[in-house]
Amino acid sequence: MIRHACLAAALLASAAAHAGPAAPGTEHHAFHEALALSIEGVGPVPPDPGNRWADDAAAADLGHKLFFDARLSANGKVSCATCHDPAKEFQDGVPLAKGVGTTDRRTMPVAGTAHSPFLFWDGRKDSQWAQALGPLESAVEHGGSRAQYAHVVAAHYRRDYERVFGALPDLRGVPAAAGPVADPAARAAWERMPQGQRDAVTGVFVNVGKAIAAYERHLQPAASRFDRFAAEWKRTGTQPKDVLSADERAGFALFVGKANCTECHNGPLFTNNEFHNTGVPRRAGLPEDHGRLPAVAGVRADEFNCRSRWSDAKPGECKELEFLAPASAAQERAFKVPSLRNVAERSPYMHAGQFVTLAQVLVHYNRAPSAPAGRTELRPLGLSAAELGQLEAFLRSLSGGIDAPAKYRSAP
Question: 348 preceded by cis ω (within 30°)?
């Protein structure tokens, strides 16, 4: 992706300036890779052209409150934090996310997603604010409607909202529950509303997403022991022996070498932010999941994408969407490459929690089984049990917690 490619190019140039040419499999190559993977390279959060309040402090404060507010749900029991629990690295630790119902996929982590051009396991949203709106109207996540949420804002957040976005529209005559959702009564109520009233309600709904995104931009992964290892190596020019254990250092060498993990998990967030079919097995009892394949058309047609009338982007600013390649058979059952930062704290793994432990994930990659649909991109690695253990040890060194202002690390 463009944003990732620019970042990667800058990192490699920086690494090259320190390390010079690096032959694969050598100490010089490992040094080069350590610099490229270091959290120092993350840099500032990139701008979001679709959200002119993305870096507004008052918007972030409002988004923080909305993120934890269970009134933004059909049953008054589900908030964004239900699945994105700050005590669990802003995820939930269960195979399938549970809101007012149970979803078909695993909750993805929030930290660092401001650097990602496409969101969700299939990339069907192209911004944090658009992503925030999806669960709010999902029948199995928050289960509510945009009219309901507009009324919640008017009743409980009027002053905060109007400080950021200006005057709320007149909601007199707006049904308590109405929106283009699965619930037949709410949908029928929505269809009876005049277009101007629907637009006014949708405007409030969109601003809820933009406020939540402004908050989420403050949630970033923090430095880990691996980053201290990379920083010390850069400072002294010698691989330090007292930051990572021998097994962790051996796992790092495998990660950037024989195991070929950096093919997808590269850059300072340990992800290329792309989509790959890695032969992950189906989870029994779930409908067929085609991953990225249908989502390409979905994000192009999305009501809230970067080029929509609800976006604040100017012409020419939606490069990711503009240059999005057409869907192809290669995207069958391709899923988002998640960041590996804090990965040891985020069991279970894969898009539907198919694997309980990191060891199981590594065995899968080592064996490279055929894909249930489409074609896996994996090839057998031929790693020994000892090498798999070393890789796991290295992955555990990537745990550093969340970097965010203290007030944003818990409920307001």
Answer: yes
Q: Are 230 and 397 in contact (CB under 8 A)?
A: no
Q: Which domains does the chain have, with CATH numbers?
A: 2-46+221-292+334-403 (1.10.760.10), 57-219 (1.10.760.10)
User: Angle at CA 60, nearest 5°, toward 78 and 195?
Assistant: 70
Nearest-angstrom CA–CA distance, 325 and 302: 16
pLDDT higher than 70, residue 20: no
SS3 annotation, 277-307:
CCCCCCCCCCCCCCEHHHHHHHHHHCCCCCC
How far apart, in whole angstroms, are the C-alpha atoms of residue 149 and residue 78?
13
How far apart CA 312 and CA 175 sit, in angstroms, is 28
pLDDT of residue 9: 37
Helix, strand and coil content of the chain, in percent to the nearest 5, comes to: 45, 5, 50
Instruction: Give the residue from 339, 368, 388 showing the smallest Cα distance to 278.
Output: 368
Residue 176 has a pLDDT of 98
Backbone angles phi, psi at 221, to 5 degrees: -70, 145
Question: How much is the pLDDT for 304?
Answer: 98
The first and second tokens of residue 1, run together, are: 């992706």
> What value does the CA radius of gyration of the chain take, rounded to a whole number of Å?
22
